[in-house]
Automatic annotation (TrEMBL):
Cofactor requirement: Mg(2+)
Species this chain originates from: Jiella mangrovi
PANTHER family in alphabetical order: ACETYL-COENZYME A SYNTHETASE, ACETYL-COENZYME A SYNTHETASE 1
Reaction equation(s) it catalyzes: acetate + ATP + CoA = acetyl-CoA + AMP + diphosphate
Residues with PTM N6-acetyllysine: 608
Domain AMP-binding enzyme C-terminal positions: 530-608
Family in the record: Belongs to the ATP-dependent AMP-binding enzyme family.
Binding sites annotated in the UniProt record for ATP: 386-388, 410-415, 499, 514, 525
CDD domains: ACS
Keywords, comma-separated and alphabetical: Acetylation, ATP-binding, Ligase, Magnesium, Metal-binding, Nucleotide-binding
E.C. numbers: 6.2.1.1
Name of the encoding gene: acs
AMP-dependent synthetase/ligase domain residues: 80-467
Record protein name field: Acetyl-coenzyme A synthetase
GO molecular function: acetate-CoA ligase activity
Length: 648
C-alpha cells in the first residue's frame, strides 16, 4: 500500500502540522469544553455563551446542545462582519452554464441583495421560525435565499432542483412550508429545467394534502415562458425594487434551527434533518479553514449543488463565515466538453477544488488531454466527498489533475454530521489513496460488530461515533423519536453512521460504504425503500425489491426486482415505462439501471425479503449465496439466477 508522506511545500503553507494536529486532537477529546469553548469564538456572538457542551446520548434522552446560552445571527456572521475589512472583496464568484457567462458579487453587494430578499420575505409575512422552501438552480440567488432566511430567523429547506414535483410536494408538506423560492427555469449542460412548472405542480399536490403555498418567489433566470398565479407568485426582480436595502439581522439562540434538509434513510420517507445555528456554524467554518487549509485571499470552489448538505456547509456557510471567495457553478462537468472544470480553474485562478469521486471517474474516462490543456497552476488543495474513492480515481486526481503537487483531502461525512468528520489535513496527515485517514477535532470514531461489541486494533466493523461534536444534527424535524430510533437505537449510547469501515494498523480509517439499505448513486444518497415504493405505485407492479450493485461510473447502480400483477407480461417496453415512472415519482437521479421481472422474491417464512441474496445475484456473485435454507421456497432463487440482468 502506497503512502504519500506530507511534502515540504505542503508543510510550509499549512496552518497545522502533524504535531499540532495531535495536540489539538488529544485536547479536543479529553477536554471538549475547553477546546470548543476556545474555538467557538471564531464566530461573532451577540451574547457570548457561558456553557459549551451539554449533550446526552442516553437511551430515551438524546439531547444535543452546544453553546446553549449564546446568541448570534448566522447571516451576519457570513456577511456583515466582513463588510469593514473586505466589503469590496468578491464573496460569490458565479460561473454560468454557458462559459461566456460569469459574475462576481462582493460582500457589500451580497449584503444588499440578501437584505432585500429578507425584506421581501418579511413583507410576505415570513417570521422567525417559519419554514421557507427553496427549489433553485445554482445561481447566486440560491445563496441569497438561504442567507435571507437565516437573517430573519426563518428555517430554510432546500430541495434539490432535480427532484420531481411529487418529491418537492412531500417536502413542502413535511416542513409545513407556505413559502417557496424558485426560478423560471434552470440551465444545465445547455438544457433548460422547468423549475417553475414543477413548482406549480408541487404546490397543487401539496394543497390537496392540506399544505397551501401562499407565496412563490420567482427568480428570472432564462426568461422562458412560465405559468403565473396572480397574488401568489412574485417576481424577485420586481419585488426587490420596492423594499429597503436594510434589514437588521434577528438575534437567534445558538440552538434555534437554521435549516432542515431532507435525506434518505433505510426505511420510510426521507427524514428532515435539523441543524441549528451556533454549533453548526462553528463546525462548518472551522472544518472549512483547516481541512482545506484555507488562507485569506484563496479562491475556493466546491462543485456540489446547494440542494445537498455539501452545498450548505462548503459552498455557503463555511466559506462565507471565513470571508472566503466561494465559486458557484451552474453547469455540469462535461459541458461544453469534459475539460470544463479545468478551464474554470484557470479562468478564475482557483486554489482549492472540492468535488465528488463520480465526477472524477467520469472525467478520467474522457482522457488526460482535456486536463492538460489547462495549466491548473493555481491549484493548491484537492478534495473529494460523497462516496468511497477507488485508488485508481484517487491516483488520477493526484497525478493528472494535481501534477503530484496538491494534497488530496478525502473527506468523510454525512448530511447528519453537518461537517467533515474524518479527513486528512494538508500539511499534517500522510495520505493513503482511498483512506479518509483520521478524525477531525472532537470526533471519536469507533468500530462495533453486529452485536455492538467494540472492536479494537486493525479490523473492520460498523462505524459509530461515541460522543457529540458541534455540527451534529439535533433532531428529525418534528419526530425526535425517529431521530433516536434511526441513529441511537442500533447501538446504545453511540451515534451509528450507517456506514461500514476498516481501521488499519496505523489507525487510518477506510470507509467501505453503507451497511444499511441506503445506496449511493453518483454520490447521491437514496433509500432502496423509496425506489421500491415508487415502483409499487405503478398499477402493473405488485411487489418490488431494490438493491445496489457495483457500477464503474456511478459507484453503485440501481437494480430492481419487480413482480408484476397477475396477467401482466414483462417486456422491454414495460421496463422503459417503469424507468420513466420512477423518474417522475422521485427524479432522474433515481432512474433504475436494471429491472429484472421476477415471478416471486426470496422470502423467509415470516415474509421478510432476503436482500442479501438479491444483492449477490445483482452482483453476479451467486456462487456464495450463503444459507438459503430459511427461505419459504428455495426454488425461487434458481429462477432469479437464470434471469439475472448483470451476467458477466
Ligand atoms: C457529505 C455527504 C453520506 C454518505 C455516507 C457515506 C458516503 C460521504 C464519503 C463517503 C466514503 C467519503 N460518503 N463521503 N464514503 N468516503 N469521503 O455526502 O452526505 O449525502 O448525507 O451522504 O455518503 O456512505 O454515509 P450525504
Amino acid at each position: 500500500m502506497t503512502t504519500i508522506t506530507v511534502k515540504d511545500e505542503w508543510k510550509q503553507r499549512a496552518k497545522l502540522d502533524a504535531e499540532t494536529y495531535q495536540t489539538w486532537y488529544d485536547r479536543s477529546v479529553s477536554d471538549p469544553d475547553g477546546f470548543w469553548g476556545e474555538h467557538g469564538k471564531r464566530i461573532d456572538w451577540i451574547k457570548p455563551y457561558s456553557t459549551v457542551k451539554n449533550t446526552s446520548y442516553a437511551p430515551g434522552n438524546i439531547d444535543i446542545r452546544w453553546f446553549e446560552d449564546g446568541t448570534l445571527n448566522v447571516c451576519a456572521n457570513c456577511i456583515d462582519r466582513h463588510l469593514e475589512s473586505r466589503g469590496d472583496q468578491v464573496a460569490i464568484l458565479w460561473e454560468g452554464d454557458d462559459p461566456k457567462e460569469s459574475k462576481a458579487i462582493t460582500f457589500k453587494e451580497l449584503h444588499e441583495e440578501v437584505s432585500r430578499m429578507a425584506n421581501v420575505l418579511k413583507e410576505r409575512g415570513v417570521k422567525k421560525g417559519d419554514r421557507v422552501t427553496l427549489y433553485m438552480p445554482m445561481i447566486p440567488e440560491a445563496a441569497y435565499a438561504m442567507l435571507a432566511s437565516a437573517r430573519i430567523g426563518a428555517v430554510h429547506s432546500v430541495v434539490f432542483g432535480g427532484f420531481s414535483p411529487d418529491a418537492l410536494a412531500g417536502r413542502l408538506e413535511g416542513a409545513s412550508s407556505s413559502v417557496l423560492i424558485t426560478a423560471d427555469e434552470g440551465l444545465r449542460g445547455g438544457k433548460t429545467v422547468p423549475l417553475k412548472k414543477n413548482a406549480d405542480k408541487a404546490c397543487e399536490i401539496a394543497k390537496k394534502a392540506g399544505q397551501e403555498v401562499t407565496t412563490v418567489l420567482v427568480v428570472k433566470r432564462t426568461g422562458g415562458d412560465v405559468p403565473w398565479s396572480e397574488g401568489r407568485d412574485v417576481w424577485w426582480h420586481e419585488a426587490r425594487e420596492s423594499v429597503s436595502a436594510d434589514c437588521p439581522p434577528e438575534e437567534m439562540k445558538a440552538e434555534d434551527p437554521l435549516f432542515i434538509l431532507y435525506t434518505s434513510g433505510s426505511t420510510g420517507k426521507p427524514k428532515g434533518v435539523v441543524h441549528t445555528s451556533g454549533g453548526y456554524l462553528v463546525y462548518a467554518s472551522m472544518t472549512h479553514e483547516y481541512v482545506f487549509d484555507y488562507h485569506d485571499g484563496d479562491i475556493y470552489w466546491c462543485t456540489a449543488d446547494v440542494g445537498w448538505v455539501t452545498g450548505h456547509s462548503y459552498i455557503v456557510y463555511g466559506p462565507l463565515a471565513n470571508g472566503a471567495t466561494t465559486l458557484m457553478f451552474e453547469g455540469v462537468p462535461n459541458y461544453p466538453d469534459a475539460g470544463r472544470m479545468w478551464e474554470v480553474v484557470d479562468k478564475h485562478k482557483v486554489n482549492i477544488f472540492y468535488t465528488a469521486p463520480t465526477a472524477i471517474r467520469a472525467l478520467m474516462g474522457a482522457g488526460k488531454e482535456k486536463v492538460t490543456r489547462a495549466s491548473r497552476e493555481t491549484l493548491k488543495i484537492l478534495g473529494t466527498v460523497g462516496e468511497p474513492i477507488n485508488p485508481e480515481a484517487w491516483n488520477w486526481y493526484y497525478k493528472v489533475v494535481g501534477d503530484e503537487r496538491c494534497p488530496i483531502v478525502d473527506t468523510w461525512w454525512q448530511t447528519e454530521t453537518g461537517g467533515i468528520l474524518i479527513t486528512p489535513l494538508p500539511g499534517a496527515t500522510d495520505l493513503k489513496p482511498g483512506s479518509a485517514t483520521r478524525p477531525f477535532f472532537g470526533v471519536k470514531p469507533q468500530l462495533v460488530d453486529n452485536e455492538g461489541n467494540v472492536q479494537e486494533g486493525a479490523t473492520e466493523g460498523n462505524l459509530c461515533i461515541t460522543d457529540s461534536w458541534p455540527g451534529q444534527m439535533r433532531t428529525v424535524y418534528q419526530d425526535h423519536e425517529r431521530f433516536e430510533q434511526t441513529y441511537f437505537s442500533t447501538y446504545k449510547n453511540k451515534y451509528f453512521t450507517g456506514d461500514g469501515a476498516k481501521r488499519d494498523e496505523d489507525g487510518y480509517w477506510w470507509i467501505t460504504g453503507r451497511v444499511d439499505d441506503v445506496i449511493n448513486v453518483s454520490g447521491h444518497r437514496m433509500g432502496t425503500a423509496e425506489v421500491e415504493s415508487a415502483l409499487v405505485a405503478h398499477d402493473k407492479v405488485s411487489e418490488a425489491a431494490v438493491v445496489g450493485y457495483p457500477h464503474d461510473m456511478k459507484g453503485q447502480g440501481i437494480y430492481c426486482y419487480v413482480t408484476l400483477m397477475e396477467g401482466e407480461e414483462g417486456s422491454d417496453e414495460l421496463r422503459k415505462e417503469l424507468v420513466s415512472h420512477v423518474r417522475n415519482e422521485i427524479g432522474p437521479i433515481a432512474s433504475p439501471d436494471k429491472i429484472q421481472f421476477a415471478p416471486s422474491l426470496p422470502k423467509t417464512r415470516s415474509g421478510k425479503i432476503m436482500r442479501r441474496i438479491l444483492r449477490k445475484i445483482a452482483e453476479d456473485d451467486f456462487g456464495s449465496l450463503g444459507d438459503t435454507s430459511t427461505l419459504a421456497d428455495p426454488g425461487v432463487v434458481d429462477d432469479l439466477i437464470d434471469n439475472r440482468q448483470n451476467k458477466k
